[in-house]
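lol ok so funny story. i was supposed to be doing the assay writeup but got distracted and ended up predicting the structure for this chain instead. priorities right. anyway since i did it might as well share w the group, maybe its usefull for someone
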Amino acid sequence: MTDGVRVDVAIVGNGVVGLSIALELARRGSGVRVAVVGPPDRAGAASVAAGAMLNCFGEVTARTSAHEAGLARLRLCREALDAWPGWLEDLAEEAAEPGLPGYFRPGTFVVLNTRSGRLDEDNFHATRAALAGAGEPYEEVEPRDIAGLDPVPGGRPLRAMFLRREGAIDARRVLAALGRAAGRYGVLDVPAEAESLRVTEDRVTGVRLAGGGVVSAGAVVVAAGAFSGRFLGVLPPGAVPPLLSGVGISVETRRVRPPGFEHVVRTPNRSGSCGLHVVPLGDGLEYIGATNIVSRSPVHEPDLGMTQFLLQCAREQLDHRLFHSLAGRWMVGNRPVALDGFPLFGGTSLGGLSLAAGTYRDGFHCSPVLAGRVAGQVLSASAVVEGLELFRPERAPIETMSVEESVAEFAYHGVCGAFEGGLELPSWIDPQALEPVYRQAAEGLYGRMEAPVALPPEMVMHLSLNAASQDDVESVAGYLKAAAAYHAGR
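and the output, tada:
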């Protein structure tokens, strides 16, 4: 049990975001006592299962520039891309690990093939346009010149580009370094699961631990990734978009048939998901990932269907020689995603409570900048995180399109995803003939909502076609009704 522990700030969550915020608070706040609460094994956390791609422009889609929220997120990612070299240098010094900066594997190839629908092409061109618009260096390359890339004939890429400033970093090593650096600054490690928040009148006063014990604190930052949703019940109904889990399955393999990959190789983001990707880890080890299935709660075990799909895509689209590779360990990570797809950063109407959640696929990448911004917000007792006001936690859902556009977008994603899954149609059937199937599912979902708002395709997929229960749909519909009432006139 942990009794009698008193700190100025308690961080709920010991992933990369929580630890980075704790470290930055300790750096900035002379005499500020900080504790990080989280189980040592981090079971199901995104941080320990991540390929940790530092992808900024590699994550751009055709809808990134369609709304200010998408552009704001891209600006945050670009700032983080600039910050990582200096952040690693400082972290290496503070963790007494001089070799840490060398653990960044620079360079990402983005490849465009024909295994999915035209959404891939849309996102590939959007990435190029964003790179050119930002003056970010990149170069078009011949796909056949990419080391390790040798897909089956039907999966050969048509085009490719090299983003030299992007790449990947060793997630496990960075987490360990963050823990050591925070410890040297006096940050208290509380190796326990947070059960709930302790609230006195209209202010948060600490964290209750599973199994007993309390960490008393003047301020609490919830940064527990996909597990953050359990702590939002202390806020008024409808105040904050619900947090769900974007479940990603990945596998670490050992190369048997050389040559292996020398850089990150990925496709553009795909229908309701991230892009297929491989990350070289060194010594013949490679990390393969791609999946993103929205779930109401975190998942801890890989399912056979998505496992088979991941392996098939990797062999057919990346390197047919992966057939011979040895599977070392399977990983399941739960990415924190808000219902509207955008993060939750900043203070709340409950005194002393801040959120740093809903980072989705950007948490690891954005952690250096996010840590500084959230630390500044907490230390100043401000309600908003500087430069990220649009993502304040207590907000109406951000809508980047109309409901009608959401239905059409979901239908487009659905058809493209069907082809990625291996759909083959007779030559006399136009692929667009499938769209009414997806339209009907989306329209049926929105028809069950009294106060519908436009949702991202992956949310529509979860609520209309996947294994979501009726309770899931009713829960979202109830939230949207409460949100309409809570935010009316605010």
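The first strand starts at residue 5 and ends at 12. Residues 68-94 form the longest helix (27 residues).
back to the writeup now i swear
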